[in-house]
Amino acid sequence: GRSLRHCLSDSDGLFLTAFGPFRLLAGYEGTRSNYVMSNGGGVLSSTNHLLDFLEEPIPGVGTYDDFHTIDWVREKCKDRERHRKVRMRLHLYDAWSGWLVVTLTGLASGALAGLIDISADWLNDIKEGVCLNAMWFNHEQCCWGSNETTFAERDKCPQWKSWAGLILGQEEGPGSYIMNYFMYIYWALSFALLAVLLVKVFAPYACGSGIPEIKTILSGFIIRGYLGKWTLLIKTVTLVLAVASGLSLGKEGPLVHVACCCGNIFSYLFPKYSKNEAKKREVLSAASAAGVSVAFGAPIGGVLFSLEEVSYYFPLKTLWRSFFAALVAAFVLRSINPFGNSRLVLFYVEYHTPWYLFELIPFILLGVFGGLWGAFFIKANIAWCRRRKSTRFGKYPVLEVIFVAAITAVVAFPNPYTRQNTSELIKELFTDCGPLESSQLCQYRSQMNGSKAFVDASPNKSAGPGVYTAMWQLCLALVFKIIMTIFTFGLKVPAGLFIPSMAIGAIAGRIVGIAVEQLAYYHHDWLVFREWCEVGTDCITPGLYAMVGAAACLGGVTRMTVSLVVIVFELTGGLEYIVPLMAAVMTSKWVGDAFGREGIYESHIRLNGYPFLDAKSEFTHTTLAREVMRPQRSDPPLAVLTQDDLTVEELQVIINETSYNGFPVIVSKESQRLVGFTLRRDITIAIENARRKQEGILLTSRVYFTQHAPTLPADSPRPLKLRSILDMSPFTVTDHTPMEIVVDIFRKLGLRQCLVTHNGRLLGIITKKDILRHMAQLTNQDPDNIMFN
Amino acid sequence: GRSLRHCLSDSDGLFLTAFGPFRLLAGYEGTRSNYVMSNGGGVLSSTNHLLDFLEEPIPGVGTYDDFHTIDWVREKCKDRERHRKVRMRLHLYDAWSGWLVVTLTGLASGALAGLIDISADWLNDIKEGVCLNAMWFNHEQCCWGSNETTFAERDKCPQWKSWAGLILGQEEGPGSYIMNYFMYIYWALSFALLAVLLVKVFAPYACGSGIPEIKTILSGFIIRGYLGKWTLLIKTVTLVLAVASGLSLGKEGPLVHVACCCGNIFSYLFPKYSKNEAKKREVLSAASAAGVSVAFGAPIGGVLFSLEEVSYYFPLKTLWRSFFAALVAAFVLRSINPFGNSRLVLFYVEYHTPWYLFELIPFILLGVFGGLWGAFFIKANIAWCRRRKSTRFGKYPVLEVIFVAAITAVVAFPNPYTRQNTSELIKELFTDCGPLESSQLCQYRSQMNGSKAFVDASPNKSAGPGVYTAMWQLCLALVFKIIMTIFTFGLKVPAGLFIPSMAIGAIAGRIVGIAVEQLAYYHHDWLVFREWCEVGTDCITPGLYAMVGAAACLGGVTRMTVSLVVIVFELTGGLEYIVPLMAAVMTSKWVGDAFGREGIYESHIRLNGYPFLDAKSEFTHTTLAREVMRPQRSDPPLAVLTQDDLTVEELQVIINETSYNGFPVIVSKESQRLVGFTLRRDITIAIENARRKQEGILLTSRVYFTQHAPTLPADSPRPLKLRSILDMSPFTVTDHTPMEIVVDIFRKLGLRQCLVTHNGRLLGIITKKDILRHMAQLTNQDPDNIMFN
């Protein structure tokens, strides 16, 4: 029965002021203090009794309150302790439960993603019309049975009626255009209103992308209910509504949140995970990989995303299980087949021409654009969100959503590129112009002259009027998307950022791609083109530019690197195009980092004041532990407990007069030699427990943390042994330790606090919050913003 | 000028007994001690002088000896310190040097891999014959210009002469068979002899796969010359010879060593990396990714291999750079195009049929086979290597290589599947039987009857006599490979294990695949086949079985998981086949782990006694720091220094009488309160330095580690201040800390030693070697085997 309890204090003292078990205890104690029992001799025997009694676990010790930081070291010790106790019979079950929970998470994530994809598609088409045969068919499915077989006309079939056709009885003309316009706005507003109301009433945690909060939770923070049943249900429903409302948002980020909710819910089936916050985070890491896997159909990219972007503690065992969860989720999604093409991936593309070295210049320019866009977006969006938080304006989230949705719908409808689903827009922009392509973007002169279904041997790549129209519309769409996305991300509806960012990049990339293509066509005598482009052959693929631009913009916003390249690589499946992608993503990250090193998720974490100690950013200052620890010179002295000369009453006074979550225990006030550390929560629980179950514990009882009771006068009441709640292995550093080492220890071991000593004497304490406050001070930010608020 | 020097002791005290700078100093001191200088007053001013003097870095402090463990925390501090000092002008260069060094590493690795591939192919064909037109062409290149265009005959052309044809003038008949047999053995023995002699004479570190040593180096250990120029040169040359000699070994593992040598050599160009052992390891991690990338043409798999298998400390920045290095290497290799098919990958395969659910049963059986093979191989190979180490037998490495090469050549020649290059064998086994396939393995009845170049509409998949012959030959090849690989891995030539393991798995897999195929053909009325296989269609792909078997066997031997699946996924390029691969690899790992959790690399690390603290295996025992620390009860007391009352002479006595690499410094013998930690090496260097440069330092001079000199009698000699070599922030744990936490701290922070305290008093010390010895004791191994020997 060795005490494996380690570092039980909570670093976030402020949250405990509202938490008052001790007040309860104080009242309880008032009624008991009359009841005095004589306790002459027999100290030793009662000590033995106490010892046996206290070696039993005290209920309630070792759990966390909401908005508290977990202690990774303690959680891992608890798991190993549990592991040793598991009987052989249950050993196999125990080993398999990890695989079972990730399998279930993968299955559920895949199924929910399929459901969301199908419903969002259907609801999105509802804005434009309805299928007469079968209400539950979307536009594409409705026309599958149609006789129209030419590709250009495949979207037009008699079964599918636009709202104007249904209500006014005519499909063409200005009247029906206005009718359709009106119905589009009506449905968009209805969906947005429903979404925001559902979120507001049932599950406020369902809003946003969820990734900042998941990063914080994975770094070891408790937010009760953030990954619960209600959040899952409401987020799933409102995500469909939000996507269908036409707002400039995507469903990819929220899918990670949905998958994490599944992981959290399934982890409650197994005590191994439900009772251990560190083990639960392993499941959540796997779940986030499954989320990205279904969002993009990229299992390997999902695992790398989990590793690079969201996870904090990622042992190799988790890597393997994350990969498994991602694969299961991807295969479930594929068997649901929401896109109707038995493809796993959202934007499956195949390019037929290689890229040439000179194209690296436009690719790098796209990277610069992506980095600039990312930096601008982060600054603008954070400024707007801060305004929302700080002014009266943030009080009306429903009105805000309605307002943004209305503007979006009004502006989006006239432009075909903004009216359509953003995912479809990206798909169209990524796709290369083949002979069967009916898109306006592919109206080259060769196709206008020749037969559409015939592959021209030497394609005339001179742009036709359709391409010029498309270019103008794309430019307008670009401006529209840029503005709307800034105001949309942060609304109180589920809102992902991946798809809008990619759309912006894809539009910019396609524009650049077509420009380069036309340049190569009209100026094929230029040196760069003469070298590589033979006359009459395709040498520029505008679709590839769109893909590179999308990756660059997404990289600029999120500052992802490897995982982003791998996700896009899994879309195309060819190593061929990795070099352009890497060039653009690297440029984008460097340009973005020049304006501020934080990605959008880190910025939102900081805006919301979550206690997140970023594992990526380096601590480069030269301060010492001495300068960060509390108490500093102006502070009151450190609240400490002595190991054997406090009474219950004195202990209560110390606890009532301070708000710290834990107290160091020392040998004596004179020597200041450190014995251990004990938690406020544990002391209150243990005293309450002792008073209820042990007789003879009075206010004047001596409290001791040593192995044997101190020698007391014969008439003193029975002493109270609290050794079992004493953490005898607190982490300590000396006052001369550079803060960079202290920060490293906190990050790598997941500490909540660390005691500071000088020549063996206790000097002070450093908590995670002290470090965050110190780092904010060093970068000239307001340190009081660092707390959770 | 804050002291960032941290934990300077070395844990491997034993190595220092031979290292005698102090003996040198003692002799030096003998000549100097006559030279006495009066040093009356002026203590304070000289102290100030000393202070300024000692704040300058003392040359030699902060480097490591060969076979010593590095201190990650100190190295990282050093780098940050350096970073702060870099002037703005050099900042850009500093930031880019990391990218530059990985780019150079990637370029060099790719180029060397191409060179090795081409030379090994050519030298391998020399064993069979020679190209008359051009000596430097291998068999395939020689026949490119030939008129023979049918696929069956493509390897036969008049330009290529077998040795019998050249010497006897006839290609056929028993005489020429014996001649060819003889020449094959002759060349094989010559290559093997040359390889082992080169290794023995010039670079003993060039032998083996190198991965165990690279893992140890990456975990923070110094082996001088292991990644040096000579090793690189000799390893490259002998690798070609060893592969060409026909021994059962591969070049994939050694390519990782070659790439790491490149990384190490290029890191010497940049002081940022050459002077910092922790930063150098980031380059080495990237280099190992580049090595696997060129070995298999799998850049993403290479990065995951580096992450999962070899690296110890892998920050995200390294992930990104590793990915870049892997890509650069892969593209250089592709532009060299050693395989003549402009493919990046070694075994490019495309399958045209999907797999069915019932096939998971044979796939899992292959996984079981892989796991059993892995466990058996590890046990047998380690037993054999231990015998080689411990008996007289290991004294004759050259004879052993010749003997093994002779047996291999004699047995291998008659069987076409063992005679050919192992990589080609694997390629043939992976390849599906198409209509153009001329292999014996594809002689089905349909092809024997019909025209060879004509695709039969309903292939008759009944095996012909060629298939039956091939099956027998494959069975013999399997037994041969299993036996020879056990004796080959560990010879004193460069020897990789990937290719032989994959070959064994591919043979087993192909045999199983053909068996299942024939079963499906003859028993297509069975329930499982009736459900999925229509009569007359291909439903079993024996090549896929070979691939799954190869992955399973490689997984069984190395216990790799995700990286292995990703490497094989990159070979096929289809997510389709990931599920069979995962099923087999997971089964293989579980079955293998049931017989012993260590992979072959960890086993060799343990066999060689490298101080490697595995980050993957969990410490599950319940011992406390108290039980592991030294001194235990029977030991002599801990050697400590007091902060201000030792003389130079007393200090020298302590250093001479002990062999510890470092000493804790305490306030006084009575209080035992810890002040800091100082290194043996630093003390000797500092005293020598002071005696040479500072006047008035005698044997009776007082040594002090405090900020201010102690008050001394007026006639005492000038004191020596050693505060600058004192590490004032040693890591400490309490004696009650569970060892699992201590092990965690050592792993995650990369410590060399940790001091143990009880209630603020110093009790003892725990070094990395103490932990390894303790872990060996707990698993009933001989603890003395744990040292490097």
TrEMBL record, chains A, B:
GO terms for molecular function: ATP binding; chloride:proton antiporter activity; voltage-gated chloride channel activity. GO terms for cellular component: early endosome membrane; Golgi apparatus; late endosome membrane; lysosomal membrane; plasma membrane; synaptic vesicle. Pfam families: CBS, Voltage_CLC. InterPro entries: CBS_dom, CBS_dom_sf, Cl-channel_core, ClC, ClC3. CDD domains: CBS_pair_voltage-gated_CLC_euk_bac, ClC_3_like. It is a multi-pass membrane protein. SMART domains: CBS. It is found in: Cell membrane; Early endosome membrane; Late endosome membrane; Lysosome membrane. Keywords: Antiport, ATP-binding, CBS domain, Cell membrane, Chloride, Endosome, Glycoprotein, Ion transport, Lysosome, Membrane, Nucleotide-binding, Repeat, Transmembrane, Transmembrane helix, Transport. The chain crosses the membrane at residues 92-116, 184-206, 227-247, 283-307, 356-378, 398-417, 470-491, 503-524, 544-569. Its main location: membrane. Residues 629-695, 726-783 form the CBS domain. Strongly outwardly rectifying, electrogenic H(+)/Cl(-)exchanger which mediates the exchange of chloride ions against protons. The CLC channel family contains both chloride channels and proton-coupled anion transporters that exchange chloride or another anion for protons. The presence of conserved gating glutamate residues is typical for family members that function as antiporters. Belongs to the chloride channel (TC 2.A.49) family. ClC-3/CLCN3 subfamily. This is Chloride channel protein. It comes from Oncorhynchus kisutch. The gene is CLCN3.
